[in-house]
Design brief:
Blueprint lengths: L2 H16 L5 H11 L1 H23 L3 H29 L1 H18 L6 H29 L4 H6 L2 H21 L4 H10 L2 H11 L6 H6 L3 H12 L19 H9 L1 H25 L2 H7 L10 H54 L2 H18 L3 H7 L6 H30 L1 H21 L14 H9 L1
Amino acid sequence: MDQVDIRRLSDQATAVLLNKNGTQSSTSGGWMMISTILIEAWDLYAIAFVLLFISDAFHPSAWETGLIGAAVQAGAVAGAFLGGYIADKLGRKKVFIGTMVLFIILALAQGFVQNVAQLIIVRFLLGIPLGSDIANGYAYIMESMSKGQREIMGSRWQFMFGLGEVISLVVIVILYLTGMNHDLLWRLALSLGALPAVFLLIGRMNLPETPLSLLQRGKFVEAKAVSQKLFGDSLDMLPNQDVKIEPPKVSDFLTVIWADPIKRRTAIFGWVSNVLQGLEFAAWGFYIPVIFAVAGIGDPQHNMVGNYLATALVFCLATVSGYIAPLMLPKIGHRGVSMAGFGMAFIALIIGGYAISNQYHYLLIAAAALLMWGHYWDASNGMTLSSMIAPPRFKGTASGFAYMFVKAAVFLGIFVFPKVSAALGPANTTYAVSIISLLGVLSAYFILPEMYGYVETEAGGEAAGMAAAE
């Protein structure tokens, strides 16, 4: 067969798979991929909880403090695009096994660093497998689950984020209450991220490659077998032999996305939303324990239990919000979820700035809870939308490219927030961050077409738009 015939059969099989109902196996694989967020959340928020103790140990400057928190995000920027590209070339399974092994090694290494420079370097390297795994995981979800269900699973990442943050907080509070030396505490807290990664690695060992990834690489025999397992369809239109398919060029990715107005508008919103929600979280949500401490909730030198309990309350509510957000998609769609989420965050930040100015502790806690409730809505679907619209041959690349915007924004927010807060004060900084959330509301309203139920086609255009509207 020539390349035209091969591509025609591959596209035909792709169309069948994208409209199939999944099986229990495909659902299990989706949960296994989205569970990666637990590990990232552990690492991201464990460092926020113990940053005060790291400062006592190493006495970093304000810029070094920002880098300690943000280095993993910089690594994830590189890892996201690199991992997505490699996953499109080599397949999903090789990447999601390799990234977990690297994460386990580097998470343990954090416990043995001897100075600020070593900690920053290790955390940068740690971000590479984290970013790679998220990009690859979203591609896996979009290729292994059924229409509608893959959107809901992809939008569960904030629920998993909240769960990981609450678990890390509970563990750190238990360690803190034991009276453990603070230098040992922060080392152990960061290293413990390797434990859930080990369980996730074991659970992933038996997951199959996705049939769509196999199709795009010409592995028709294995694709037919995996499709039967995940979707109950052996793709009889394909020959019982492997073929050689010319690999796509990375440069074609943006060309394909930009050529169709539905894909283009959705991609733009996905990237913009990822930047805005990343800044929204990094410039306030990440520093909630520090903001509470500055406002007088908990004493960093003597007793942080009150601070931790207030933070735990905020993230318990946020976890509930993260669970509810995907359930709202069939009711109000992606556009409605984004607008509501950014809107709640905007209101919460205005209230938060007022509460900080007037030392209203309970109002500040309520504002933080409302912020994270809204944030877990507005951050739920940027990655889902960006991955959903991409053709399978670019699915990993598209996921990785979109995740770069999240991680770049989080890096920037975590890195500069200490300096901005020192210059403007916590209250004025909070008011400034509210502008970010307001931009999110406007972006959802003016840019995003309603995409719930969308089924990707290479041609896109009116047919895709009609599918999304149904």
